[in-house]
Amino acid sequence: MSIKLAAFDVDGVMTDGSITYDSNGNELKTFNAKDGHGLAALHKEGIITAIITGRTSEAVTRRAKDVHITEVYQGVKDKAAVLDELLQKYELTPAEAAYMGDDIPDICVLEKVELAGCPKDAVQEVKDVANFESEKNGGCGAVREFCDCILNLNRN
Prior knowledge:
Layout: E1 5-8, E2 20-21, E3 27-28, H1 33-44, E4 48-52, H2 58-66, E5 71-73, H3 79-89, E6 97-100, H4 107-110, E7 115-118, H5 124-129, E8 132-133, H6 142-155
Parallel strand pairs: 1-4, 1-6, 4-5, 6-7, 7-8
Antiparallel strand pairs: 2-3
Helix pairs in contact: 1-6
């Protein structure tokens, strides 16, 4: 197995799923530094990284830039269509793709990719589809575990 594209949901995967607003109505998100190191390691190995999320947030744009995410899709209604677009753009097959999600809107993508990951605290319907379940919850190192898994699979 050789994974060439690794895509991620944000809320509940890269974060703990909390949505916080400041007094001005700005959305705040907290990201895990270890997850960031894992994402940067994928980038360093030449793996295309992507965010596919249903929400839109400036915090996500900033985080993606900080950890060298290749592609960022926010405000997405049809995540499977975005995956198809990415596969076509980079001339890849679903067998070369991985995705990590935690909730019902992610199932359509998880069912298409070779490596379907979820955090420990994902909903049961996602766990039933995933072939990788992190030992950590979303926002608490789950992304790092998934990144390490991808790197190990690609080395073997």
